[in-house]
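FAQ: What does the model actually see?

It sees only this:
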Amino acid sequence: MDTNASRFVIRRSTSGFTVGAHLFGILSLILLLVWLLHYRGGLDFDSDISERIFNVHPFMMFFGLIFIAGEGMMAYNTIAADKPVQKFIHMLLFLIAICMGIVGINAVLKYHNKDNIEDFYSLHSWVGIATFSLFILQWLVGFLLFMFPKGSPGTRARALPWHVCVGRTLLYMAICAALTGLMERATFLKDQYYGNQARTINFTGLSILLFGIFVDLSLVFARYV
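And it is asked to produce this:
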């Protein structure tokens, strides 16, 4: 009886953290779009205005490597389906995240080329490219081990804790890249970084961080359900 009661409490906690993660993820997306559309002039990969080209970068990187990746990590808790279906959706969401990351990196490189800015010179870019490279490697290893051709049951059992641990680490690395990116962009704005725009950037960063924390807590508590 005590065990059942404990499981019920943990299940409720997991559901609460998962709902919180969804809410903070949606809030982050809304705040990011407010900043990019209202304060920074919109998004357009093919625009003649370099600022609009750049704006594709933070949107794609957040929406792909943080929001969709976080949702993919929680897929086992949020999708009521058999394990093979959950696994497929998990891998598909991460593949979509990688594709969006490719577009986002191309956008910032195009912006740098247009404005004659050096590539990969900042801490943000170093953390970001390392995260994205490891993200692709994590997906490839996961696909080979757990989807096709699949490792042996023993190999999969030994690899699973590492797969989960690396995934959680990469989420925090992506968040670190996002927060350093926001601050880097704020330094470019100089005298424009004040008032409502500054508060929008700050609240966006806090929402992204809280999204990651709630995703992580959801995953941790789900282990005990």
